[in-house]
Fold these 3 entries.
Entry 1:
Amino acid sequence: MINILKEMLKGKVDAVGEIPVKKIVFNEELLKGCETNRCGRYNRNWMCPPALADQRALVDKYKKYERAFVFSKIVFLDDPFDAEGMERGRKEMEALIVEIRLGLKNRDFAILGAGSCSICRECSYPSSPCRHPEIACPSLEAVGVDVAELATETGMKYYNGPNTVTYFAAVFYNPDYKLKVISGGKATEVTVAGGANLLAALRDKGFYLAADCGGAGVCKKCKVKAEGKTALACQTRVTGEMMVELSTGEYHATPDDWETRFPVEKKSGYGVAIDFGTTTIAAYLHKLEDGATVAGASALNAQAMFGSDVVSRIKKCAEGHLPALHETAIKQINEIIDWFKADHGIANVAEVVIAANTAMLHILANVNPSPLGVAPFTPVFLERRETPGEEVGINAGTVILLPAIGPYLGGDIVAGMLACNLAAERETALLVDLGTNGEIVIKSPRGYYGASVAAGPAFEGARIECGTGGIAGAIAKANLKKGKLITETVGNKSAIGICGSGLVDLIAILIKEGLIDEAGTFCFDAKSPLAANFRNGRFYITSDIYLTQKDIREFQLAKSAVAAGIRVLTEAAGVNLKDIERIYLAGGFGFYLNPKSAVAIGLLPEESVGKITALGNASGRGARMALLNGAYRERCDAIAREVKIVELAHNPRFSQLFIEHMSF
């Protein structure tokens, strides 16, 4: 900032200097001089005493900065009583201050000027509020600064000879610091303003960090290592150069049991299939010649900085933030593609196929999804889109967005239906995709019926205090062995949090051990040996990973929405739960969800015992099939047209069942 200021004021002022703010004395006693009203502005201006009544709060505003850039302008007068010359000089100084405000409008700073504010010909004080609070500023003297002493401290002259008056002003600021950010195994150096909030600074530089609590320091999702020590980014100020390590930005290999059991169109080059989920992104690199899997990767969706669920992101787009969400999505996809290319020595990616919910498809296409947020919830498009990668900014030859069914039944559930070959089922079958936006489709003698439930992001670790997506280090499984709680993490890494499948297992264990009652309330006096894990109202899984009562409530809302949605959908399709021959379970839980635990907690009906097939990432599988064979893209088009949508939003039956399924 200092260089910008010097360049802006070059040739326009006579002297400049710098001083640490802690060396500036704010003396309230000096304000008594204002009471003599020698300037004629006392009690006549919003920027002068006594209008500046809360002196301490005002001074604190300037003390939060580390340094002050002081500048002065000498005005030559015809004689000591040249009032017009004095006023002309003050106006010139005021014009410089306005210029500085405009030039630094995107930075954090504060200004103290020279003399009382005269932006308006006549101040609105006291009859009405200040007309221009964004550019008006008090003088140095109005907050008790001894200007003569300030000049001495900065090596500037206060008196510049007879028939002169020297005006002083100061810009309070924090110096810029360099941060070395380690993300995804890559080191990047960025410059941020001193005093900036670390979370905001990192996001501004394009680094993703979740903060479900809005930066209040409650959710603890923005943990980083700053200079080797664990810290919450939202509660950390940048006060010097530092190294910051991010765990959430890493891409890691995804477990895979993929086998190519279908015809592959033999083409040259490589392709990438992506399941672009609201919370987690999973991507797969394939050889197009034979369909062989080269690599898989997953990461948390960086768009979560704009909101943890679909509705909040639609709202952000309606507020004018579509370019930012689109850019964030495209940047992350390109990072994954570049990661694949660098790791495997690949020059180019020929095709990218993406399965995503309807809102995400709009954002990826740079189409505003805001119509999805208001009745009648009309999508701008539902059909499959194929475009050159350069048109959407993705580093690939062609980008294919799979078709959606409706506003809240997207290309992800279409890809899931393709993956489990729901069309081939002779009997009644159910597909449940457990994600932030739960999607359910049933195949019955009457045809396909689909519904979307606002399960919320709890299944994918969001809004759970120690929750995380299905990334390396997420607790994905839990079981009891000889009375001891045993957990498994994704990639066998050190535990960093709990993902959805781990949450299902843990809650099933807590219910079995009597540590949670039917209402979902913690039972601290339970007889189970695991009751010793209760401390300070929390149930600890590791020394620093735990479940809270609020976490259980969040999960109850999610599981109740899914359970009620299944009941309503089966009724609409004219079948009973016992008539369902097969239940396909898909979603971000990946390969880890235990069907028995899902039934034990009431997420899935008791009638589903023995009928459940865990698909893992069905959306990703469908995207891979569509990548490797164009016929499957056409099948996706047909699937999207055949599903009848069952609305749940204002369905009284759904509301009734939702309440019934809240209990465990």
Entry 2:
Amino acid sequence: MLRKKALSQNHLFGTDGIRGTPGKYPLTPHMLARIAYGLADYLVFNPGLRPQRKPRVIIGRDTRLSGQRIESFLVDAFVSHSVDVYLSGTITTPGLSVLVRKYNCSLGVMISASHNKPTDNGIKIFNSQGQKLNSQQEKAIEEIVFNQTVPTKPKGSAKSITLKDSHHCYVEFLASTVKGLNLKGVKICLDCAFGAASPFAREVFHRLGATVYSIHDKPSGRHINKGGAINPRRLQKL
């Protein structure tokens, strides 16, 4: 049996994905499920967008406290809609773009609100080439989301897989982009802003031979962006 849910809002995407306060529109559990169903249907209606026959989505997130809860709502909806899900864990937005291509996925879903305050969150969507969707694609997805029927029972089944090597893959990719670069004798100060780059940045610069001094380098959903480009004062004192 299907039920139609009337929505007062008819707009999801802003200048950089979907953003809001978790628990409020558009990041309510119901809307997150609708978004996942809409993305699944979008892939079904556009088979040319899928690198493989069965849709496969990879989900990454930054360190915000609400990220795991949003992730779980999306996973449940995707899996019940016959979409396999890969979970990268904590990753940067560019990192997820790399992993979309690495794992041959149909779409990438990044749970992040970038430089916004820690209590905000959002969703950014990448195509199979790791590129952000264009405005026409976003509009097509919005039309599906706001006009679809919401199933009261699962439409199908799939699986979710937690990737064990996503950290290694991203570090290797970053190092490969500057292959041959030797930073021996160079001192680098890093402010990781308690964000998703924290597990990667020191490792990459160390591999290149640099002497690294870092602050705010422990991932923290409570303190994300309390530093970094938003607040560079501590970095200036190093």
Entry 3:
Amino acid sequence: MLITITFLTTEEYGLLSLLNNFINIFPIILNLGLRQAFGSEFYHLNSSGKIKMLNDIIGIYLFISVPILIISFLNITFINQIIFVSKANNYLILIALISCFLNFFAEFYYQVLRYQCKTYSLTTAQFFVGGVTILTTILFVYFLKLKISGILLANLSGLIAIIVYAFYRYIKVTGPEKFRILHCKKNAIYYLKLGFPFVPNILFAWILSSGNRWFLVQLDTMQSVGIYSFADNFCQFFNLIILYPLSASYVPHIFRKFAANKEKILETNKSNLQNMYFAMGLVFVLITLGYLCLKTIFIKFIPINYHESLKFIWFLLIGQIFLMGSYFATAHLLFFKKNYINLVLTIMAAIISSILNFVLIPIFGIWGCVISSMISYFLYWISILFYTSWLKFKA
């Protein structure tokens, strides 16, 4: 992040943010919830069943995504006009599309490691990708002066590196079952049906978390997008050090506890919610102290054209605390496959976020995005708690 802001203006950083958001959201359309279907079935299958499901998921993904990718390649100019308001060039969008396609395989590998609770392997893989990305960023951005395209190429290099290693692990682990991806037709409809509720859920979750910058580019300026995106990077950092490990370790842990104590689900969930309140309080204290202590360092080392983002960081991180709380609160729903309930709650929060952005941005500019983010995450979290409380009362 420090390397990129040194070489990019706030407008260029805003465009980079939009491209990265596109790379995050388009894979959801490409995989149609297949990874989420894998997650729903994983704990209900034996070892051979898991390998067969893995092959099926990869085969279905290739069958669906390759035609969509080809059509996208043929309509890059249209994508630029509609999504990026003609601010990007075709070369940048080409790199983004390739990254979208490959993203599935990298995230699928991480997902398998999470579900197997191989925390060390997962952490090592992420550090490896981070190292490759940093080194190639220095090469492409610092030495070759490629700016936005250099950053995208560096991220793509990290993706390719981990996919090559994941492919090696796939061959080693699956043994005689490897490459049986063409036998996926039998279960294709089942997996697509199972994963479908997750697609709109993730899309609306994306609107909730990142859609505000698309409102900014339409209702304000690309410079505002850059300033907001830089502040929001601290939320991404929060995601990396808090939310991602939480989903990788605690969520599988609580799922196993639910599975082992089905007759005491409510007691287990009560303990889960107690953990939630403790974690939220602790993180609030740490964020506040960290923000107060690091403000002066921020001003000293960050280019002056990004200083405006400082005043938004604490408020955005408070919103992330409510998002963290929702990870605990939704565990009970997701374990019992109440995916449609979670979808409805996410849609409601995303709609509220969109309305608030549309109303507040013309009046308050970037502050409109910040206020919208905090309110929406709070409402999403509290609505989940109300629903789980209702389930407990009903039981």
